[in-house]
């Protein structure tokens, strides 16, 4: 069974990006950065999601990210599914911070329960088949709209959305071209998926 170990964001200035992510989220080796000037414009076709236990944690992480230079795309708010918001890091990556809970159940923390890489696919069903053939196990699937992979032990969860739907929930236009500015590390053999996302061996 294949699993996702880390993501590498390609950024113009790695030192600046490292300072931002340390101040905003305090993420560990699951998130890496490397220098790149590859041309890109508009929506890059993916987003990162931080899943936390309660609204106060959402507020804390969202607040420090904005203070560190992130741009809010969707203000933090309650919704049918819980509580959360969306922002864009200075390097251009889109981040969702969310909790399924609408009420705090304990003291405020900054604990991140799960990190999810959300990839926008032109054809979710075709991409699902591709990933299954490369050793990924489906844990949830909703037709051509959404697919979730990865065992519970995976450092980062992987999901597929229809590209337009992912852009909509992220608060941006689905139009975009050029580099994804993303490299994904896993225990699988290297490959490039149908939407151009590059995977490399974690070793």
Automatic annotation (TrEMBL):
A molecular function (GO) term: lyase activity
Entry keywords, A to Z: Lyase
Instruction: Report the superkingdom from the record.
Output: Bacteria
Q: Where are the transmembrane segments?
A: none
Name the InterPro entries for this protein.
Glyas_Bleomycin-R_OHBP_Dase
Query: What is this protein identified as?
Result: Putative lactoylglutathione lyase
Keyword Transport included in the entry's annotation:
no
């Amino acid at each position: 069974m294949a699993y996702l170990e880390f993501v590498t964001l390609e950024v113009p200035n790695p030192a600046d990006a490292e300072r931002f992510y340390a101040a905003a989220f305090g993420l560990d080796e699951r998130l890496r950065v490397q220098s790149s000037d590859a041309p890109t414009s508009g929506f890059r076709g993916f987003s990162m999601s931080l899943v936390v236990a309660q609204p106060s944690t959402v507020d804390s992480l969202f607040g420090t990210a904005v203070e560190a230079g992130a741009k809010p795309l969707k203000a933090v708010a309650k919704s049918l599914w819980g509580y959360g918001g969306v922002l864009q890091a200075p390097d251009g990556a889109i981040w969702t911070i969310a909790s399924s809970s609408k009420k705090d159940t304990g003291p405020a923390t900054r604990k991140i329960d799960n990190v999810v890489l959300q990839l926008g696919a032109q054809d979710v069903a075709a991409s699902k088949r591709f990933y299954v053939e490369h050793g990924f196990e489906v844990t949830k699937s909703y037709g051509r709209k959404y697919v979730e992979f990865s065992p519970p032990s995976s450092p980062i969860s992987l999901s597929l959305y229809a590209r337009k739907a992912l852009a909509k929930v992220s608060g941006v236009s689905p139009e975009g071209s050029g580099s994804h500015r993303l490299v994904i590390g896993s225990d699988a053999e290297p490959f490039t998926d149908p939407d151009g996302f590059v995977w490399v061996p974690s070793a």
